[in-house]
Design goal:
With 865 residues, this protein is of the alpha+beta class. The protein contains 23 helices and 36 strands.
Amino acid sequence: MAKRPLLILPTPDPVAPPKGHGGGGNIQFPSKQRQVSNYGPVLTRLRQTLSRSRGALELRDDPSSLAPDRVIVFEIAGTITDFFKAVARVDGLEFMAEYEADFAPDENFAIRDTRKGKTGEYRTDKAISGRFYLAMPDVQAFNQLLSLWDRWVNDLPLETGFAPFAHLFAQLHALRPWGPLDRIPEETVQFWQEESARAPGRPVRTEVELWFHHSPERQQRSSHVFASLVTATGGSIVHEVIIPEIAYHGALIDIPAGEIPSLIERQAVNLVLADEVMFLRPQSLLVSRGEVEPIKDASLQEQSGEPSTKKPIAALLDGVPVQGHARLINRLILDDPDDLQSRAVVSRRVHGTAMASLILHGDLNAQEGPLDRPLYVRPLMLAPQNESEQTDRDHLLIDTIHRAVLRIKGSEGEEAVVPTVFLINLSMGDMRRPFTRMISPLARLIDFLSEEYGILFLVSAGNILTSLTITNFSDWSAFENASPEIREKAVLTALNAAKHQRSILSPAESLNALTIGAQHHDNVASRGSAVYAVDPFDDHLLPNVSSGLGLGHRRSIKPEIYFPGGREYVRMKSSGNGLDIKIGAPQQIYGLRAAAPDPTGQGRPDYVSLSDGTSSATALATRAAHRIFDAMMDRDGGSMLADMDPRFYAVVVKSLLVHRARWNNNADLLKDICGPENKRQHVARSENACRFIGFGAPNTNEVMECAPNRATLVGYGMLPPDNAHSYQIPLPACLERVTEPRSLTVTIAWFSPIKPSHQSYRCVKLEASPLSPPLEVLGVERLKQQPADAMVIRGTIFHEHFTGDRAVPFIDDGYLRLRVWCKEDAGGVEDDVRYGIAITIEANSVIPIYDEIEQRLRVTPRPRR
């Protein structure tokens, strides 16, 4: 029973949101004369060709030309207000997608210099930010675009609603068809090369993203044309899926080996030129490392008690677990409609067994009690003999996960299997899909399902197992014998230099999910010895070397939080001209102790092993979320939140899981290593530190129960865009007019609807701030050691700390009035947005904060307005 359970925030009042503010662009654009001379000839030829009877066919026959029913790239500098509304007014102009872009400055495009002493000049050292607007025009739409161009060239006004096209023409940096370089990213070329070398002569299985059309007729036509192209190459379509809610149309195909060399060179072959194809990519697969050193645990006894009668709230999408293991028996609800068990050798069921064990029991070395609810398990991975556990190569992964979630929550024509589940653990990342700028289809799916069903996905950041070059050392002995501080700084410097090659793995960029990084921590009491293995970090709050680094979409904070992932050691890969280090298996040196299958194949239920990485960290995060929820539902234990509307379970748990995360002293070290050197560039320095530590490592126990000097208040609600709520939080009298150090923490979590094809993507954002300055109300101001303001508002978690010790008289009758508001981002939202909020007021010494706030919540009338 909690002595001091979480408190409930008073019901908020509707208030007006703060007024928005915008800023103008700061880019030099070329003259109209330059634009006319650059694009006029192209558009004139287009007009002349379209005027001929077979002109449209002539254009389609030329893959390098602008043509009807072909995706056209409008590359622009900066952004254009209301462009999508203008596009919608052009009949036959189908908007396909929008992506961020940047390009080098030149004499026509440059950023105006605002630095002291350089006003009026232009930056030659700073890339131009812009957009790719992708649209598919038919003949009618082309003719209207040409008409709009003519009016702009001749300084004639554009009709109402078409003004954004004038900005489009003025800011145009490139105009071209979507081509081979767009369709085949470099990682695809590398994948084809590796597959061709690994299995010469065998077809190469490739994932294709087709352009998504909203019209079912266009979808069918696109499928038919694409199937004909694949057949003509001698290939075959293995699987095809359309998910309209995320604008996804994909196919899994086998490409004959003879076609691969031409594709690698992006030569003019059908698949490279196909107007239906958006991208050719490596097949998305989830693959387990599978390297464990299991040992027998004589202390384990088979636990064959009665199964729990409570409903499950958490689901594990992973490998097939060993159900009969002593730690798992009668604790799992295994649902395997794809019958992956039949293709999962019991002795190879490593990953699912470990993850289930960590969720249910935590790190066995920590000796925590088990969860008292069963865990629902939907296998995604099979486990062939002598191969790593992996998802089914004959199916698109996105469809497998989509079907799994619909089965959990129910859909039209299918009853929910476990409707009470609202936590889903996905402890794997796609090694073939590191995040760059574009949200992957799988992340889009998770974002949609989160908001649609009120699900909190906990997703691993991904483990980057490629070697790391340490430039400060020439050999292993020098590295091994260096002081912990010098070694730590050298490894962090190397990680920072390689950060763009060690980014988070899809679907970790999901906005609505919580992405979990691996903290350099475990509970191993006695570590064995290993040759050429050393602990790279003295600080247990740093991330593991293998933990995928942020940031996320539009530089949002990813991973948000870190949980223990084992005190990961590094090993020498090579030395001589520098030192290359790598990550090996935990063996018995580090990691989280978890259940493991019997490696002998005899099915004994008492094996354990050490597990590590972001997968294990994510399992612990899911366990923490589960424990937070159970504490909130503990009516007999005094919980005041047991009657919460189930629609808000996920967002409230999301807010509380992050709520006690803080930056530590390592932030200063990371800022100095990652730069920039100029300390006044605090946003850039903060961004670079966030790549490594996100919001920090949370203290779960502190958020489950309050303390005499700490009160946490929890609330939830619904807000439509451009609306706000005002919360009245009673302040404790013991903090009035005293210099006692105190802090205020505010966390808001929500699930945003998405616009899959738009760069803004996130439809809404939420923020919060006191209506009166916090320094005047509570004597606190924003803590410097945390992510910068500009970063906090980019994702779907708003999390800020305030600290101070100023003695102030309370105003507003001793209430902190906090305004929470919802604003459109990508826009287009019709329904209210659900959110959860947590607020903590805390003092450094033991004074009766909790009792005084709790008393005021019970007896004090509402404050005056």
